[in-house]
Hints:
This protein has helices at residues 2-15, 32-40; strands at 48-49, 54-55. It has two helices and two strands, in the order H-H-E-E.
Amino acid sequence: MMSKLGVLLTICLLLFPLTAVPLDGDQPADRPAERMQDDISSENHPMFDAIRGCCMPLSCMLLCEPCCG
């Protein structure tokens, strides 16, 4: 009985391998560079001043880059 089950499992894996399953292209794991860029962007920091193009002087201590001093 176990050998028949093993043969059936082997045939199923040969006919439909697990790598043939299509992956969702919208997964963030598929694009790690974009995900990292979005996470560390200083423009998205709440202390970033878009008009001046830099962070407020006190936010340098809060790891907001670039600082204008």
